Amino acid sequence: MTTSDTLGERLRAAVGELVRATRTANQLPANQAAALGELEREGPRTTAQLAASCRIRHQSMTSIVQQLIARGEVMSTSHPTDGRAQLLSITADGRSVIVRDRENRAGRLAHEIDTQLSEDEREALSSAVTLIERLARAERESSEKPIREQAARPPAGLDQSGGSGSRPRRRQAVIATESSRIRRKLSAVKSDQSDDVAT
């Protein structure tokens, strides 16, 4: 195992343990908090987009969204371009819940920082947090890239202009070329026969 592998495993374990320890201060279940947080950070999303971003099955996210809507923390509106989809947005109540949970977790961490770390250690932690934020952004962009590429990809059987695929067009072009060649041959044969008759 390389140094980066070891450091990555230590970071994963430490962050995971820290998240689990502070989660007890949450008022929301983790999956509901994740959905609200995603809507608060990224803006309106469909259920499918929300499920992909939170890495939750679509069926599970549908149940989560229904609970959030029932409590008035999320609202659903018609999608402006897709009549089959609904756009989900966080409400003022949902934002208040998210802010309250974040403040509770931050307060827990602040207490531990003040009581467990020296001044020099707090400065070192500040630098480490900056690096962790950079890693988090890179990981998020990497995980969302396939989703963006899939959304930008045209439907199967269609080219970029939205018409029929290029394969049928190539087949039609081959047929047209072959037909033209046959007509030229027939014309040449007829011409030869006319010459023979004239002779």
Automatic annotation (TrEMBL):
<feature type="region of interest" description="Disordered">
    <location>
        <begin position="136"/>
        <end position="199"/>
    </location>
</feature>
<dbReference type="InterPro" id="IPR036390">
    <property type="entry name" value="WH_DNA-bd_sf"/>
</dbReference>
<dbReference type="InterPro" id="IPR000835">
    <property type="entry name" value="HTH_MarR-typ"/>
</dbReference>
<dbReference type="InterPro" id="IPR052526">
    <property type="entry name" value="HTH-type_Bedaq_tolerance"/>
</dbReference>
<dbReference type="InterPro" id="IPR036388">
    <property type="entry name" value="WH-like_DNA-bd_sf"/>
</dbReference>
<feature type="domain" description="HTH marR-type">
    <location>
        <begin position="1"/>
        <end position="134"/>
    </location>
</feature>
<protein>
    <recommendedName>
        <fullName>HTH marR-type domain-containing protein</fullName>
    </recommendedName>
</protein>
<feature type="compositionally biased region" description="Basic and acidic residues">
    <location>
        <begin position="136"/>
        <end position="151"/>
    </location>
</feature>
<dbReference type="GO" id="GO:0003700">
    <property type="term" value="F:DNA-binding transcription factor activity"/>
</dbReference>
<dbReference type="Pfam" id="PF12802">
    <property type="entry name" value="MarR_2"/>
</dbReference>
